[in-house]
Write a structure and sequence with these properties.
It is found in: Cell outer membrane. It is a multi-pass membrane protein. The protein is 6% helix and 57% strand. It is mostly beta strands and 412 residues long. The chain has one domain: Porin. The chain has a 14-stranded antiparallel beta barrel with strand order 1-3-4-6-7-8-9-12-13-16-17-18-19-21. The N terminus is likely disordered.
Length: 412
């Protein structure tokens, strides 16, 4: 019982950090047009493709913005017909970027984004409480970058990614009337990105970009058990005074390939499309190395290896913008985002769905200043949950919406 109790609990908590879903909220203007990428009007292009900085019309560009993201997930046990709904707080993804041209064909820049993360909160006494009660995930990407204009119609750009992450996760341990908290605030990793940006015709922009996976290394993770009797702690290989154990793990974040197009149908009307390919298949297994707890399945009993069955996924995006005047712009979009796992691998820590999203927004340009607002409504498709490994079966539904405010400044 000890091995099942501890290994299942810790695996679920850490896996949810590794499999935290991709958050497509890195530009307000982009979100309004289905989060498409081939837009080089200001520094918000930096996250999507550093090569796009070469085509920003101003020498210096600064952008910043934030979002509110609200979502609810409902799970129904089809045997008992009991339904449970999450009470999630509003998420607040942020972004900021700057791009500067020190010389004509060279651009340098910096991007700050939060591309992975969420907070989900189930009732403390719900039927899946041994998997999760509350889970808070955060990631922060810091990207210095450079772009070189190779020709009037072509540029190449590259970036270095330094990532920081944290997780704070609570679950119940009903066998002993206790709880478990998984916490790590200092996970870090690094990666890179690069891309090409083409403008073969004044009416057409083409963006091709790659962002590498980032292996988030958790070197000082802490698992804290709370039981009515401290006498249980030594039986689980835990610190007898605190009920804690340490663990290390390498937690992969997904790589991404993107092809984006923007075509100016008329001087006032443009249409954009993107295709994203996400390399979730790299989650073939997850290895956790505990300091003392003998919860593993290898020759070393403190090492736990669990096979995973994530699969690569795709996203299809289509957006448009119309200039009502030189100062006011209207935007619309829609996209379809695939879940990276099947019904048999559904997990309540980071619930994921095949999702249709509609978006829209307005942009206001006041000389060098720009103000953008955007919103999105997500329509996740209901799932028949069949996770035999976790003993988790039923039907899951969700709903979500997003809103954002962005500012830009192109002084010269």
């Amino acid at each position: 019982m000890k091995k099942i109790l501890v290994s299942t609990a810790l695996l679920a908590g850490v896996l949810s950090y590794a499999g935290g879903f991709r958050v497509s909220l890195q530009g307000v203007k982009q979100l309004a047009m289905a989060h498409t990428s081939a837009h080089a009007e200001d520094a918000s292009v930096a996250f999507f493709n550093p090569a796009g900085m070469s085509f920003i019309p101003s020498k210096l560009s600064i952008v910043a913005g934030g979002f509110g993201a609200s979502n609810k997930v409902t799970f129904q046990n089809l045997n008992t017909l009991q339904s449970t709904e999450t009470d999630n707080p509003i998420g607040t993804p942020l972004y900021a970027a700057v791009a500067y041209k020190p010389i004509e064909n060279l651009s340098i820049g910096f991007s700050f984004t939060t591309p992975f993360g969420s907070t989900i909160q189930w009732p403390s006494d719900w039927e899946g409480r041994e998997m999760v009660q509350k889970l808070e995930l955060k990631s922060f990407y810091f990207q210095p970058m450079v772009s070189v204009k190779l020709a009037p119609w072509l540029s190449f750009g590259a970036s270095y990614i330094y990532a920081k992450g944290k997780v704070n996760w609570d679950k119940a341990v009903t066998q002993f009337g206790g709880e478990l908290n998984i916490k790590d605030e200092k996970a870090s990793g690094s990666g890179y990105g690069f891309g090409f940006y083409f403008r073969p015709d004044p009416k057409l922009d083409v963006s091709i970009a790659y962002r590498s996976p980032v292996d988030m290394k958790a070197k000082k993770g802490t698992a804290t058990f709370q039981f009515p009797s401290a006498a249980i702690y030594p039986l689980l290989g835990l610190d007898p005074s605190t009920g804690q154990d340490k663990f290390t793990a390498t937690l992969p974040l997904v790589e991404e390939y993107t092809i984006g197009l923007t075509y100016k149908v008329t001087p006032k009307w443009l249409v954009s499309a993107d295709f994203n390919y996400h390399g979730w298949e790299r989650y073939s297994k997850l290895t956790l190395d505990f300091a003392n707890a003998p919860v593993g399945n290898q020759a070393d009993p403190t090492i736990l290896v669990s096979p995973k069955n994530f699969r690569n996924s795709k996203t299809f995006r289509l957006g448009t913008q119309y200039a009502f005047t030189n100062m006011i712009f209207g935007r619309l979009g829609a996209y379809y985002d695939e879940s990276p796992y099947t019904d048999e691998n559904f997990i309540p820590e980071t619930p994921s769905f095949n999702t249709y999203v509609i978006t829209g927004g307005l942009g206001f340009k006041l000389k060098q200043f720009g103000v953008d607002i955007a919103g999105g409504y997500a329509m996740p498709q209901a799932r028949d949950v069949k996770n035999a490994a976790l003993g988790f079966n039923g039907q899951a539904k969700a709903k979500a919406f997003y809103f954002g405010l962005g500012l830009s400044y192109n002084p010269f």
